Amino acid sequence: MSRLRTSLGLLTCVLAACGDDGAASGGGGGGGNMTTSSSLSTSGSASVATGAGGDDLGPQPCALAEAEDRTGETSVTITSEGVNYTPRCVRVSAGTNVIFLSDFDAHPLRGGAVVNEQGVVDPMSPITPQDSGTSATFTLSEVGEFPYFCAFHASIGMFGTIWVE
Ligand SMILES: [Cu+2]
Question: Does residue 70 have a pLDDT over 90?
Answer without folding.
Answer: yes
